[in-house]
Write a structure and sequence with these properties.
CATH class: Alpha Beta
Strand order of the largest sheet: 1-2-4-3-5-6-7-8
CATH architecture: 3-Layer(aba) Sandwich
Distance between the termini: 38 Å
Radius of gyration: 17 Å
Largest sheet: 8 strands, mixed
Number of helices: 9
Helix content: 25-40%
CATH superfamily: Alpha/Beta hydrolase fold, catalytic domain
Length: 301
């Protein structure tokens, strides 16, 4: 059964958004959100295995379209304080199916228990493990949404800094690129995000590091932006992050990076989480996955 996009918007506003605030502790928010997202609609034939990657817990997701020699490292969002492979299972599975890759959905450490740089350290450890398994970087793509999108960029910046080969491409879904929160599009009625919740996430995770490029990739040096792998970026017309995302896209393009960007009209922050349930969300994930597939296979043609 498919849920109409307007109904999903109402569900987000009246069921999900109230959980994500300052009333509940991050630990309590995690438990409630995991429960709400426990019954995803996955591609037929999907298999999920709980495993570890570089010592970090992860879900390994394969679909009938997954190739064993193509890997997708997926970094989930949640303002750095909530989220898990459970909450992002549908988006990651449909993305893996469209990309023709095996997805590894990282269960990285969260704030406030584990502030920056714990998540970046976990992401780099997992990425190193994929390369250590025998995969060449041309056979690995990294994707993430919201805080996970920012984390994907942080991983690329860190990998370059320590001399680790970069992945073939990055897929960014409404990435959180500026923890200072100065550029939020507060004229927009976002059905999911609130400034208060984002402030809680930024304070819990970044602390005094809000202007570090691994926390706020919008502030990265142009030379580092120029060295990024090809990027595909989605943002939504009805989300607080849309202006910051478009500033980042402009900065990356200005530095010389290859950036494909599409603004999803009528969507809100990471509607992709409804993949399999909402037609428009599934289509958005398929678009990103198709682009990632072309990044993985272009050397074979």
């Amino acid at each position: 059964m498919q849920v109409p996009l307007p109904a999903a918007r109402l569900l987000t506003r009246h069921v999900v958004r109230p959980v994500l605030g300052t009333r509940l502790s991050p630990a309590r928010q995690r438990r409630v959100i995991d429960a709400l997202m426990r019954f995803p609609v996955l591609p037929r034939g999907t298999a999920i295995e709980r495993t570890t990657l570089g010592g970090v817990p992860a879900d390994r997701i394969t679909t009938p379209a997954s190739r064993a020699d193509h890997a997708l490292l997926y970094l989930h969002g949640g303002a750095h304080i909530v989220g898990s492979p459970v909450t992002h299972r549908a988006a990651a599975a449909h993305l893996a199916h469209a990309a023709g890759a095996v997805a590894h959905v990282l269960d990285h450490r969260l704030a406030p228990e584990h502030p920056y740089p714990a998540a970046v350290d976990d992401a780099l450890a997992a990425y190193r493990a994929l390369l250590g398994s025998g995969l060449s970087p041309e056979r690995v793509v990294v994707a993430g949404d919201s805080a996970g999108g920012g984390l994907a960029l942080a991983l690329a910046l860190r990998a370059r800094a320590v001399g680790v080969p970069l992945p073939a491409a990055l897929g960014l879904i409404s990435p959180w690129v500026d923890a200072r929160l100065d550029g939020l599009a507060e004229r927009i009625d976002d059905p999911l995000l609130t400034r208060a919740w984002l402030e809680l996430g930024a304070t819990s995770y970044a602390g005094r590091h809000r202007e570090h490029p691994e926390v706020s990739p919008l502030l990265a040096d142009p030379a580092d932006l120029a060295a990024l792998p090809p990027l595909f970026v989605h943002a939504a017309s009805d989300e607080l992050f849309v202006d910051d995302v478009e500033r980042f896209v402009a900065a990356a393009r200005g530095a010389g990076a290859s950036v494909t960007y599409r603004r999803l009209e009528g969507h809100w922050h990471v509607t992709h989480l409804y993949a399999g349930m909402v037609r428009e969300a599934t289509e958005a994930v398929r678009e990103l996955g198709g682009w990632l597939r072309s990044s993985l296979t272009q050397l074979e043609t």
